[in-house]
Amino acid sequence: MALYHPTPEDLELAAVLHALSDPQRLRIVRELSADPAPRACGSFDLEIAKSTCTHHFRVLREAGVIEQQEVGTSRLNKLRREELDESFPGLLEAVLAPARV
Amino acid sequence: MALYHPTPEDLELAAVLHALSDPQRLRIVRELSADPAPRACGSFDLEIAKSTCTHHFRVLREAGVIEQQEVGTSRLNKLRREELDESFPGLLEAVLAPARV
């Protein structure tokens, strides 16, 4: 079954802000922003259980922050930067800018 | 007892994003931004119970998004725009900009 991704028209600011409102998810988004190549969930240096990690990626995907593509047994993740920038200009930049989380 | 307000140094991006990640709270912040005069909780046109309203204002205050001042039996609310802009440049502007919530 294909993974659910909201269309650009369906992106909601409150859902995007909620997806970004967790330090671990902010860290994931920062890493995806720094290296735009699609990355597998396991490649992130997160000190959390695998199930928690899967949950965080799902929240990010369902809000439209990331795209997840199933390749073999892996899910590759990338930031939906263009769609986010178009729907909410300046938001991602402001969120990624501060060193303070 | 004085109401808790985080100092500017204690503002956390994840907490601020969480406070903003609700359509009713976004609406409150939009209204406070449009009219900078301190406003009582009851003056907002929100279709929610008073207790829910109180909860939303508390979440905004504890994250550092608004300042609440007790005047008689009322709590007057105003946006902590300068502190937010200093800690998270561009964030409030990006969040307040879109018509789409």
SSE blueprint and pairings:
The structure is a homodimer of 101-residue chains.
Chain A: H1 13-20, H2 23-34, E1 39-40, H3 50-63, E2 66-71, E3 74-79, H4 81-87, H5 91-96
Antiparallel strand pairs in A: 1-3, 2-3
Helix pairs in contact in A: 1-3
Overall spatial form of chain A: globular
What average pLDDT do the residues of chain A reach?
A: 91
Radius of gyration of chain A, taken over Cα atoms and rounded to an integer in Å = 13 Å
* Quaternary status: homodimer
Instruction: Report the major sheet of chain A.
Output: 3 strands, antiparallel
Q: Largest beta sheet of chain A: what is the strand line-up?
A: 1-3-2
Order of helices and strands of chain A: HHEHEEHH
Stretches of chain A where pLDDT is under 50 for at least 5 consecutive residues are: none
Task: Explain what you see.
The structure is a homodimer of 101-residue chains. Chain A is of the alpha+beta class. Chain A contains five helices and three strands, in the order ααβαββαα. Chain A has helices spanning 13-20, 23-34, 50-63, 81-87, 91-96, and strands at residues 39-40, 66-71, 74-79. In chain A, strands 1-3-2 form a three-stranded antiparallel sheet. In chain A, α1 runs antiparallel to α3 (50-63). The longest helix of chain A is centred in the middle third of the chain and has 14 residues, at 50-63. The termini of chain A are far apart. The model of chain A has no long low-confidence stretch (mean pLDDT 91). At the A-B interface, α1 and α5 of A face α1 and α5 of B.
